[in-house]
């Protein structure tokens, strides 16, 4: 059932090209995005004045990335919230807003409660869900099904990747319908999305190098992930993957926040993983890495092919193929998933079933 892999997590990591491809092809037909299956009409797309993305855990991290993408492409203001906070906050919701719930299982208690809260307030709801017929899928006004297939490992990988795709497709289509992007940009974004599965595949070829690096980190006490913009969103997910299966304390920081406290935690040899895929932010975060290095940090960099000067600063660099900067999360997350996986394996832990965690969190 693990198809020759040692753990479900590794099997699911390798299923990502297919899961992403299937999800893309469920809404992209003849080089155009068709959201009619989701039930979103052009009228509705045009009238949305605010988007609220509500989710837990990794699905929340998809929301953090999606916020950048929706705002950049559609210029619709987006708020991202943890479901466990949203549900008790008596949130102020714009009547023309759209509440987007993201959930693999469709059964997460807080996400379901947040959905009910939004419906009670009379706001349109849309769920991005993997499990057909789950509670969230049944109760939401509209559903975008991700086609990741069953995910067994507690640490999500392929569901996360397909959730990202769902948000890209919605953001690109909404931007086009609202005339925020022209047909050339629209088609270019679609063609870049369609290339993502092959690029993910390419990153997976490099897994032995990451294994070699990760195996050396098994004794780490703390790991810090830093990045700006979308690279911060990726850092959040990389850090969660690492801590939940390796039991190493890890945190993600917006790189600009380092100087506001965190940098005092660095000691000789503390591992800092910098995610630097956004060209306009590259130099800024690189200079943060230099600062970390001068405080003794051991540096790992995740960046795009071409940024070879990172090797002057970082002790280990892993490269990802180029794509539209808006879609880079789909690629940069792969080496971070692999890193968490290989550290967990090197420590001899139960990768698929980390202690104290359940696949589906149906109690708050
Ligand atoms: O089923 P859901 O997507 O609603 O689950 C949300 C979180 O519980 C989930 O993403 C969790 O954080 C994973 N263990 C992360 O790998």
TrEMBL record:
Residues 41-180, 213-354 form the SIS domain. The keyword Transferase applies. Keywords: Aminotransferase, Cytoplasm, Glutamine amidotransferase, Repeat, Transferase. Its EC number is 2.6.1.16. Its main location: cytoplasm. It catalyses: D-fructose 6-phosphate + L-glutamine = D-glucosamine 6-phosphate + L-glutamate. The active site is at 359 (for fru-6p isomerization activity). It is an enzyme of class 2 (transferase). It is found in: Cytoplasm. One of its GO terms (molecular function) is glutamine-fructose-6-phosphate transaminase (isomerizing) activity. It comes from the Bacteria. Catalyzes the first step in hexosamine metabolism, converting fructose-6P into glucosamine-6P using glutamine as a nitrogen source. Homodimer. This is Glutamine--fructose-6-phosphate aminotransferase [isomerizing]. It comes from Muricoprocola aceti. The chain holds residues 249 to 612 of 612 of the full protein.
């Amino acid at each position: 059932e693990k198809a020759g892999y040692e753990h479900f997590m590794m099997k699911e990591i390798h299923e990502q090209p297919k899961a992403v491809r299937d999800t893309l092809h469920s809404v992209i037909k003849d080089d155009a995005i068709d959201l009619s299956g989701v039930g979103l009409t052009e009228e509705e797309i045009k009238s949305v004045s605010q988007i609220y993305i509500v989710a837990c855990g990794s699905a929340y991290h998809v929301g953090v990335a999606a916020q950048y993408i929706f705002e950049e492409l559609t210029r619709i203001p987006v708020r991202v919230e943890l479901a466990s906070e949203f549900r008790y906050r008596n949130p102020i919701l714009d009547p023309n807003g759209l509440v987007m719930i993201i959930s693999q299982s469709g059964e997460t208690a807080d996400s379901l409660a947040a959905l009910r809260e939004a419906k009670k307030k009379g706001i349109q709801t849309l769920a991005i869900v993997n499990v057909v017929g789950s509670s969230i899928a049944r109760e939401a006004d509209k559903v975008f099904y991700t086609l990741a297939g069953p995910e067994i490992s507690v640490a999500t990988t392929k569901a996360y990747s397909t959730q990202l795709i769902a948000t890209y497709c919605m953001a690109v289509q909404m931007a086009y319908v609202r005339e925020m992007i022209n047909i050339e940009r629209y088609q270019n974004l679609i063609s870049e999305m369609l290339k993502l599965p092959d690029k993910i595949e390419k990153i997976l070829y490099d897994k032995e190098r990451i294994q070699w690096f990760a195996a050396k980190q098994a004794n780490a006490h703390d790991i810090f992930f830093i990045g700006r913009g979308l690279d911060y969103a990726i850092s959040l997910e990389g850090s969660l993957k690492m801590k939940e299966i390796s039991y190493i304390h890890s945190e993600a920081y917006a790189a600009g926040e380092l100087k506001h406290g965190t940098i005092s935690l660095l000691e000789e040899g503390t591992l800092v993983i910098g995610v630097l895929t956004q060209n306009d932010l590259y130099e800024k975060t690189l200079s943060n890495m230099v600062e970390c290095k001068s405080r003794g940090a051991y540096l790992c960099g995740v960046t795009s092919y071409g940024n070879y000067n990172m090797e002057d600063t970082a002790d280990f660099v892993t490269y990802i193929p180029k794509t539209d900067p808006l879609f880079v999360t789909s690629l940069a997350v792969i080496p971070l998933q692999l890193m968490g996986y290989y550290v967990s394996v090197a420590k001899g832990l139960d990768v698929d079933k980390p202690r104290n965690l359940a696949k589906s969190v149906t109690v708050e």
